[in-house]
């Protein structure tokens, strides 16, 4: 099956009537029906045939749109696709209601198996970083390299900014929060998220801010919006408590793919101090530190992230994989401003 065809297996997940999500110039959206889930896939037309395939996985409350700037920056370098996780973006909820990290990882694996594009260069941000880590650990045949931007991996000392997200996963809190904030406008909500996720909110253009407001207004009309948020937040908290072979740090140690780790010095959700632990845990890793970046470096500094990935891509070429394997565990590279 070609990468543009969808499996014919029917699904019971039917999205409600809503305005379509924004599609940037050069992008397209399509729906892929898989057993138990329907996924929306955002892609860019590859500049030429034979470019290495990628898949981008967003974080909690995000969507495939979070990767648009980086996908554009990688035009001519890779064949880009970004997924809307179940219940986010244009993807309806999963049939079984499973929003756990494992459930999201299973959806990604089902898509990669069905699309037959692998192994891919897999990217993940925040929740998507945890999902991508699990995918790379349990299905190494699907992952050529792994790029993680502020991955949501367990921390002993949770960042203060991440506490509300954790509380959102407590049963009943989402309903209470919805009631308490029912008078908040989409603009107020986006302004708060921007302040939380960006190292410097001033980097967000007025046009991008307005687009984010319109997207949130659209998604707030979806009946499952808060359910997807709350259950996915609970999924992150549950993943943090898992031990043994299913623990995320143990799975990070099992990842075979060369890994690029990107951490922001102004990240309020994932501790910058975790960067060194991650570099030690992923066996073939390189670390990019961006002191001025927040939680979404691929949106704040897409050109810097693209350059770092191109360097990784050069190393994992037909003769480059050994170069990464020979790199000392946790070898670091300096980023902009470091």
Count of extended strands: 9
Cross-sheet strand order for the largest sheet: 1-2-4-3-5-6-7-8-9
Order of helices and strands: EEEHEHEHEHHHHHHEHEHHHE
Mean pLDDT figure: 84
- How many helix segments? 13
**Distance between the first and last residues' Cα:** 45 Å
Oligomerization: single chain
Which range does the strand content fall in?
Answer: 15-25%
**Main pleated sheet:** 9 strands, mixed
Low-confidence stretches are 1-16, 166-170, 172-177, 318-338
Radius of gyration, whole Å: 19 Å
**Which shape, going by the Cα principal axes?**
globular
Helix/strand/pairing category: alpha/beta
Percent helix, as a range, is: 25-40%
Describe the structure.
The chain has 338 residues and is α/β, with parallel strands linked by helices. It contains 13 helices and nine strands. A nine-stranded mixed β-sheet has the order 1-2-4-3-5-6-7-8-9, with helices on both faces. Helix 2 (101-115) crosses helix 3, helix 3 crosses helix 9 and helix 5 (173-180) crosses helix 8.
């Amino acid at each position: 099956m070609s990468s543009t065809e969808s499996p014919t297996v029917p699904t019971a997940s039917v999205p409600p009537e809503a305005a379509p999500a924004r599609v940037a110039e050069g992008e397209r959206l399509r729906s892929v029906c898989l057993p138990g889930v329907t996924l929306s896939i955002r892609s860019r037309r590859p500049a030429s045939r034979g470019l290495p395939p990628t898949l981008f996985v967003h974080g909690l409350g995000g969507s495939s749109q979070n990767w648009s700037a980086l996908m554009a920056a990688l035009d001519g370098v890779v064949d880009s696709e970004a997924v809307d996780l179940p219940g986010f973006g244009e993807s309806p909820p999963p049939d079984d209601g499973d929003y756990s990290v494992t459930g999201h990882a299973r959806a990604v694996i089902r898509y990669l198996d069905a699309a037959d594009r692998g192994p891919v260069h897999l990217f993940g941000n925040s929740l998507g970083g945890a999902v991508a880590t699990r995918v790379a650990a349990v299905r190494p045949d699907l992952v050529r390299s792994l790029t993680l931007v502020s991955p949501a991996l367990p921390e002993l000392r949770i960042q203060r900014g991440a506490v509300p997200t954790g509380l959102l996963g407590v049963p009943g809190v989402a309903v209470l929060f919805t009631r308490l904030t029912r008078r908040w406008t989409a603009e107020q909500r986006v302004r708060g998220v921007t302040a939380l996720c960006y190292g410097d909110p001033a980097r967000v253009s007025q046009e991008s801010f307005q687009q984010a407001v319109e997207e949130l207004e659209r998604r707030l009309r979806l009946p499952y919006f808060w359910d997807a948020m709350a259950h996915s937040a609970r999924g992150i908290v549950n993943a943090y408590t898992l031990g043994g072979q299913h623990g995320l740090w143990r799975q990070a140690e099992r990842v075979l793919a060369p890994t690029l780790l990107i951490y922001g010095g102004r990240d309020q959700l994932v501790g910058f101090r975790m960067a060194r632990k991650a570099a030690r845990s992923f066996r073939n890793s390189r670390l990019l530190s961006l002191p001025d970046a927040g939680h979404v470096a691929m949106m704040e500094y897409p050109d810097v992230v693209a350059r770092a990935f191109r360097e990784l891509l050069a190393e994992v070429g037909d003769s480059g994989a050994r170069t990464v394997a020979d790199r000392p565990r946790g070898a670091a590279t300096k980023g902009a401003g470091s």
